[in-house]
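Researcher: Structure for this, please.
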Amino acid sequence: MLRKPTGRGLRSALGLLLPLIVAVLLLQMLFGGSLRAPNTAMTYTEFKAALRAGQIETATIGVDQISGKLADGKPYRPCG
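Model: Predicted structure, token format:
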């Protein structure tokens, strides 16, 4: 005689897996940003001076922001 599946296995797996996924997401939100190098803040005038001095390695220019990497490898984002 065949028994009808009760779904206990699925509920039990979800009961263990769901809290683990939530914990990983919370840890990523809390500590994920601190693992990245902070942006070096500079004014647009400082950015232009650094560009002239050859201190800018890469630059991504958008409609209303500029970001990239300095020659020493640190990320930057002009502000103001």
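Researcher: Any notable elements?
Model: The radius of gyration is 24 Å. The longest strand covers residues 56-61.
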